[in-house]
Amino acid sequence: MNNFLFICSRNQWRSRTAEDIFKLIEVLNVRSAGTSNSARIKVNEKLLAWADLIFVMEKHHKQWLIQKYPAIMSGKQVVILEIPDEYQYMDIELVGMLERSIEPYLPVS
């Protein structure tokens, strides 16, 4: 089983959309969180330790994680998706971008 963690700022639109579409894949455990204090679910050490692969929406999310959690992040693979904060939850364009971006990281069955 692969543990995928999706991170954006407030965990309301981008990372939450990613969690909800990829949690339907049986070979994945998927969670999402945000970096902001106002996030629906805030990133923490336990989530980062749990994750096999971390996907961030923007470069500044990765920088924030490395600055806030240097010890945990030192051995983690982080993929920057380059998806700007301009989409609503389950926006069809957002879903398409996420599916194309994540496909190379999905386990081959």
In DSSP terms (H or I, runs of 4 or more residues), the helix count works out at: 5
Amount of beta strand: 15-25%
Name the CATH superfamily classification.
Response regulator
Low-confidence stretches: none
User: Which architecture would the CATH scheme give at its second level?
Assistant: 3-Layer(aba) Sandwich
* Radius of gyration, CA atoms, in whole angstroms: 13 Å
Q: Helix- and strand-based class?
A: alpha/beta
The pLDDT mean sits at 96
Tell me the major beta sheet: 4 strands, parallel
Numbering strands along the chain, what is their spatial order in the largest sheet?
A: 2-1-3-4
Helix content: 25-40%
Query: Per the principal axes of the C-alpha atoms, what is the gross shape?
Result: globular
Question: Could you tell me how far the N terminus lies from the C terminus, measured between alpha carbons in angstroms?
Answer: 12 Å
**Count of domain modules:** 1
Which H/E pattern describes the elements? Answer: EHEHEHHEH
The CATH class is Alpha Beta
Write structural notes for this entry:
The chain has helices at residues 14-22, 45-50, 59-68, 70-73, 92-102; strands at residues 2-8, 28-34, 53-56, 77-80. It is an alpha/beta fold. It has a single domain (2-105), classed as Response regulator (Rossmann fold), CATH 3.40.50.2300. A four-stranded parallel sheet has the order 2-1-3-4. The protein is globular and about 35 Å long.
